[in-house]
Amino acid sequence: MPMWREIWTTYGGRIAGISVGIILGLLYFIVGFWDMLFFGLLLWVGYAIGKMKDEQKGPIIPWQQLVEWLTERWRPFK
């Protein structure tokens, strides 16, 4: 097994965390706090959607349930 693969399997989470910290720190210095915070929010949303897709928990947006709820909620003539 190559040395870099062994290091990645042992310390992968720490390496990824430090990398994200460095990137977010640079964004803070370059574009400002609120823009960096919004970027972090977008990263978290992307991660959450990707995790749901990986775990195959069904559709990200349950369109059928949403349409049924809206139909019941806003019937034109009750």
Largest sheet: none
Mean pLDDT: 81
What structural class results from the helix and strand content? mainly alpha
User: Low-confidence spans: pLDDT under 50, at least 5 residues?
Assistant: none
* Mass-distribution shape: flat
Question: What's the Cα radius of gyration?
Answer: 21 Å
Keywords: Membrane, Transmembrane, Transmembrane helix
Pfam families: DUF2273
Organism: Paenibacillus glycinis
Transmembrane segments: 20-47
Description:
This protein is an all-alpha fold. 81% of the residues lie in helices and 0% in strands. It is built from 3 helices and no strands. It has helices at 3-31, 33-55, 63-73. Helix 1 (3-31) runs antiparallel to helix 2. The longest helix is centred in the first third of the chain and has 29 residues, at 3-31. It is flat and about 65 Å long. The chain starts with a helix and ends in a 5-residue tail after the last helix. The model has no long low-confidence stretch (mean pLDDT 81). The chain crosses the membrane at residues 20-47. Pfam families: DUF2273 (PF10031). Keywords: Membrane, Transmembrane, Transmembrane helix. InterPro entries: DUF2273. This is DUF2273 domain-containing protein.
